[in-house]
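Q: Got a minute? One more chain.
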Amino acid sequence: MLGITDCKSGAKLVIDGEPYVVAWNQFSKTARQGGVMKTKMKNLITGKVMEKTFQGSDKIEEADVGFRRAQFLYATGDDFEFMDQESFETISLDRSVIGNSANFLADGMDVDLQYFNGNPINVQLPAKMIFTIVEADPGVKGDRVQAGTKPATLDTGFVVSVPLFVEKGSRIVINTDSGEYVERARD
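A: Always. Here it is, folded:
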């Protein structure tokens, strides 16, 4: 069990039976009362953020969260198959568990599977990844105040908005958290 002073950014806690990671915390103490820890926490399964305040006497359970390296094998419908690189067992995760990460998975890609109490709960991808554009309309210049964008299809099949100068065959960097174009890849 953890005390409230252990609820710092990055701490993994169990709240109502689900794993959370502390994203922000603020400790305060008054002369007569015990300490109070205000936190913002992100649910590691659903991704929802909640605010919670812990009192000085509260005891908090630490979450048993870990990562294991796996290789993405293939997808069939809403099922995504991974191979654990230590035990070589096949792990199947539903699209609802993977969320937006499904848009950036390519066959043979190495990923980190996040586990809670021995069960896989999420896929962690690098914050930025390089992809190849397989389809993009030609950019048309015209009267506009700001730089224009156009849709382009990545080699994973995901459609992203890119600047007009990006062409088919270009390699670009995508932010996997937001799904947005970052820059051209430096090859």
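A: Residues 128-184 form a domain with the OB fold (Dihydrolipoamide Acetyltransferase, E2P) fold (CATH 2.40.50.140).
Q: Perfect, thanks.
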